[in-house]
Structure formats: structure tokens, C-alpha cells
Amino acid sequence: xxxxxxxxxxxxxxxxxxxxxxxxxxxxxxxxxxxxxxxxxxxxxxxxxxxxxxxxxxxxxxxxxxxxxxxxxxxxxxxxxxxxxxxxxxxxxxxxxxxxxxxxxxxxxxxxxxxxxxxxxxxxxxxxxxxxxxxxxxxxxxxxxxxxxxxxxxxxxxxxxxxxxxxxxxxxxxxxxxxxxxxxxxxxxxxxxxxxxxxxxxxxxxxxxxxxxxxxxxxxxxxxxxxxxxxxxxxxxxxxxxxxxxxxxxxxxxxxxxxxxxxxx
Amino acid sequence: xxxxxxxxxxxxxxxxxxxxxxxxxxxxxxxxxxxxxxxxxxxxxxxxxxxxxxxxxxxxxxxxxxxxxxxxxxxxxxxxxxxxxxxxxxxxxxxxxxxxxxxxxxxxxxxxxxxxxxxxxxxxxxxxxxxxxxxxxxxxxxxxxxxxxxxxxxxxxxxxxxxxxxxxxxxxxxxxxxxxxxxxxxxxxxxxxxxxxxxxxxxxxxxxxxxxxxxxxxxxxxxxxxxxxxxxxxxxxxxxxxxxxxxxxxxxxxxxxxxxxxx
Lengths: 265, 263
Fold this sequence. Notes:
Radius of gyration of chain B: 24 Å
Number of helices of chain A: 9
Structural class of chain A: alpha/beta
Oligomer: heterodimer
Low-confidence stretches of chain A: 1-12
Number of strands of chain B: 0
Radius of gyration of chain A: 18 Å
Shape of chain B: flat
Mean pLDDT of chain B: 90
Low-confidence stretches of chain B: none
């Protein structure tokens, strides 16, 4: 792949919002997935959520933009209470970009149209303005030259970068990433991570569920380790990944960082 | 002597072909060709059917089918959305409607709208309206189920992506989900049009003027006026095939296209 990931400085004025989660609980029937989570993310901060599968980290992320409705607790995004019963949820979601593990690009629209459809239908921008914003964001993720391709004509990594451009085209103040590289071929992971790295440098608030420990260590301001629906440990990336204090964190990291290790206990 | 599996299969196929040929030959020999020729293949006397069987019969069949399809498609889309609604009352209404109209003969619906409803409400409906409503309401029930399946076949992540971009539910449906669902249901929807084309023949139970005749009624009329036996119906039947076979080919084309783009 010879796409050059472009970090043009003109895009580097992000208006970033903070997130505040308090006492968040979520159950599916009798299965409690989130058991009272408190988490604050400051504007411009990059927080990586790590933990074993089933630990509740994706559910937590999906509660932030209310794709999952929490049973208890509050979600504040940029000082505005997302869980308030009278909130205009669609208005709140415009400020929150989301990137999915499976990309979820719209297959009947090309890359440019994927980035313009919500701009024109939701933000009521003119087609010309939307096209311009979309093109700028596709350039930003290094795919400006593939604007007329349809999703099934793009590789997984390219699709994920279009999905990032689609979210950025709404001028979000917060970006949520739900295992953005887990469905990718190993050779395309790097391009996606480098787009995310640039976004972090530009000052975007980012909440990232990931298994990429290298990325977390390098980019995250803070790493949160979750297991069994609770936050087990949180702190600087260096501290949580290199010098964890909790046994569960140590055990998890030992497995993740050394995948050849087979636990026979 | 033992045969290989391939040899056994070949012998079996040859026996089947032999039985088929014998059956066809027996049917041909048993047929009274003189009578059949006079009453079914009597093409000498059907001249007066032309060109009106095209200008009136074929045209009306196409018009009635088209009108019925438009009503059926709009009604079917509404019912499909109701059936997927989170509000139970909508689901019950849609389910009741679908089960009712799929469960009774379309002929009864034509009679109900042609005679029952005008009597009950003291209105007199134009035949075109009766056909449009009757065909449309029956078609809506079948199309609703087809569309519901199509809507459910669109991956859940599509709705989530649309909603997370700030689209309200209705906007996500209109702009993202329904266009994808339509692509999925194009082949079964084309088959619905074929069924509708044939169902439009049920209009014969209504009182029609000559200019309102569609293919079947036109053919039946020819039986009594031309003295060519059933030949006019044979012609009408052939013209149905002129409509339905291309549709069938179209459905197959849609099918192979969607199979190709699927990954």
C-alpha cells in the first residue's frame, strides 16, 4: 500500500469535549455487564480501554453515545447530560464520532458520499460544502484519491480509514473507537493506527477500545483496564502496561503481550 | 455383471427419457386433433381480435397491474415498517392485515370492493379504482412480508452507524436502510409483479365496458363472439407469457447481480 497518510496542519484545530461517566450500570436480563463505572476523560485526552473480551469495555463505549441505554448512572459529553430524559439524542450524537470494528460503511454509497450523507441530511450543509469537507477528510486519512470507490472496492484498512473520515466530516468533539483494528489484516493495521495517532496529536478527545498495546503505550494519555464490568486499574500508559499493580491486570497483560503463552492452570 | 455408479446413473437417465417419450407419444395419439384444431387452434377466425387485444386487452392488463403494484408497494412498505415497530399495536395491526389478506382468495377481495363496499357506503367506484384497491391491498400483504425480510437482512451495524452520525430513526431508514433493503428484495419483488399480472384477470367478476377489458376478459368475450372455440383464450394466454417471461428473466438477472456483489 502506497497511500501516504497526510497530517496537514490546517486540520489541527479540533474543538474537543470531555466525557464524564458516573455510576454507570448496564444489564442484559440478569447478566450485569457494567457494575457501576466512573470515568472522566478531559478535553483533548486520549484514553485507551483494555481488558479481556466480555469485560464490558465495548458496552461502556456504546453507552457514551447511547447506542446502549444504561440502566443507571449518568453520561455527560461536553457538559451536556446525554442520559437526561429530555435530551435530544440526535443532537448529542453529532458531537460524538464513532468508529466500529466492522467499519459499517454504507455499501450503496461511494467513499465521498459516505462522508457527505450525514452532513447534508443532518447538518443541512450544502452539497458543495459537504463535498469539500468530505474530500478534505479523505485527504486527511490518505484516501483522497479513492473518493469515488465503493466500500467493496476498498481493503479493510482503507474502509476503516473512510469510516474515520466519515465520522470526522461531522466535526465531532469526541471520537469513540470500538476495536478499530481487530477486523483488519495485519498489514493494514499500521495505516489505521497512524491516522489515529495524527488525530490524537491534533488534540481530539479519544476513547479507544483496543488490543493494540503498542498503540496504547505510545498514544494514550491514560489506560483503563476493565474486567468483569468494573474498572480494575487505571493510570498512565507507562504505569498500567509496564508496571501494573493489580494481579488481574498482570495476568491479562502477560497473555496479551506473550500470545504463545498457554495457560494450563 | 457389476456396473459402475456412472454406468448405473446413465442407464437410469435413459430409462427416464424413454418413459417420457412414450408418454408424450401416447398423449399425441390419444388426442382428437380434428376437434382440438377447430376449437383451440382455430386461427382463421380470430382476425377481429386484432389490434384491440393489444390496444385494449394487453394495455389494460399492464395498467391494472401497474396501479395495483404502486398501491401494493406503498402499503407493503408501511405494513413492513409497522411489523418491525417497537410499538405492539402497530405490529398487531400489520400481522392481522397480512394474515387476513394472504388467507382469503383474491377473488373475494375483488367482489368485496366491487360490490360490498359501494353498497355499504353508497358510493359508486370507477372500475379502475376498484382494481387498484383490490389488487393493491392483496399485493400489500405479500409485499409486506418480502420487504420485512429485506429490511431485516440489512446488517444491524448499518442502523447503528447511521444513528451514531446523528440521523433520527426515520432518516436512517429512508436514506440508509430502505435503499439497501430494496436491492435485496428486487428479485422477489419482481416475482410479486408476475403474480399481480395474473391476478389482474380476476377483474372479470366486475361489470366492465368493452374499453375496460383486460386480456382474460377480452379472451372470454372472443369465445362467445367469434365462433373459434377457445382459440381467443389461447391468444390471451400467450400474451400473458409475453409479459411474465421477460419479468422472470429480469428477476433472474437481479438475482445473479446481487450474488455477484455480495462478499
